[in-house]
Design brief:
With 149 residues, the protein is α+β, with helices and mostly antiparallel strands. The chain contains 3 helices and 7 strands.
Length: 149
């Protein structure tokens, strides 16, 4: 039998190392590798539901309207594009250029009862707003009876 000295500090360190390992595993699970590997940043998004529409507000500072794409793919709204920033400072004995280029892509599942044909998007001051109108209840509740022959 091996006799070891009781050291509570060592047990605490082992306990902490186990939690560190668990946290690193959970961090790897949170970010799907296959989905985000080709994209350089993820813009922040606010969502809200109004009386007549759903609204997506995407923070895209420095992204031009021409570099933003909004598509409907398989019952989802997909917002993608490219951010190109170039900051140049010229002074008498000093020259600095900072550039950033990156792709982004975010997708959101469309809820039931939306008017896909009338979805529209508008970009203003670095904020893209996508408005997804709801269908009227009378349009949703329409039923069609099919005669059995």
């Amino acid at each position: 039998m091996l006799v070891t000295r009781y050291r509570p500090k060592n047990q605490f360190n082992d306990f902490r190392r186990s939690f560190d390992l668990l946290n690193s595993m959970l961090n790897n699970i949170e970010r799907p590798q296959s989905q985000n590997d080709n994209y350089d940043f993820t813009p922040a998004v606010n969502t809200r539901e109004g009386k007549h529409a759903y609204h997506l507000e995407v923070d895209l500072p420095g992204v031009k309207k021409e570099d933003i794409k909004v598509d409907i793919e398989e019952n989802s709204v997909v917002i993608s594009g490219e951010k190109k920033l170039k900051e140049e400072v010229k002074e008498e004995n000093y020259y600095k250029v900072e550039s950033f280029y990156g792709n982004f892509r975010r997708s959101f599942a469309l809820p039931e009862g939306v008017d896909v044909e009338n979805i529209h998007a508008e970009s203003d001051n670095g904020v893209l707003e996508v408005v997804i109108p709801k269908l009227d209840k009378k349009d949703i509740e329409k039923t069609k009876r099919i005669k059995v022959k």
